[in-house]
């Protein structure tokens, strides 16, 4: 899937931010409370998968569906999350 111009512009903006405080302020303004809860969980899913923790255990621990964890595993297989360890 090809990223839209707007998506690339957003990525450039995020990449240009140099401080945690500035990034937090931007994310607080952009994301809904639900998104602020879900996005960090997705990162945790990837980290746990890379540590070899079983998918069902991750789902139970983070209180997410197994399908959500499986989606993360598929993205890892496609090489999407190289920067997350």
Number of domains: 2
So how many helices? 5
Q: Could you give a short account of the major beta sheet?
A: none
Identify low-pLDDT runs: none
Q: How much is the radius of gyration in Å? A: 14 Å
The SSE order reads HHHHH
Provide a descriptive summary of the structure in words.
This protein is an all-alpha fold. It has helices at residues 5-16, 20-30, 33-50, 55-62, 66-77. It has two domains: 1-30, no CATH class; 33-85. 72% of the residues lie in helices and 0% in strands. Helix 3 (33-50) runs antiparallel to helix 4 (55-62), helix 3 (33-50) crosses helix 5 and helix 4 (55-62) crosses helix 5 (66-77). The two termini are 24 Å apart.
Outline the secondary-structure elements.
Layout: H1 5-16, H2 20-30, H3 33-50, H4 55-62, H5 66-77
Helix pairs in contact: 3-4, 3-5, 4-5
In summary, what is this structure?
With 85 residues, the protein is mainly α.
Keywords:
globular; 85 residues; 5 helices; 2 domains
């Amino acid at each position: 899937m090809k990223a839209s111009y707007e998506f690339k512009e957003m990525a450039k903006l995020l990449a240009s931010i140099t401080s945690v405080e500035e990034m937090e302020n931007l994310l607080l303004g952009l994301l809904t409370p639900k998104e602020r809860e879900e996005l960090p969980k997705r990162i945790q899913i990837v980290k746990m998968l890379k540590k070899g923790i079983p998918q069902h255990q991750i789902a139970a621990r983070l209180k997410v569906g197994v399908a959500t964890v499986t989606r993360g595993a598929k993205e890892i297989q496609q090489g999407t999350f190289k920067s997350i360890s």
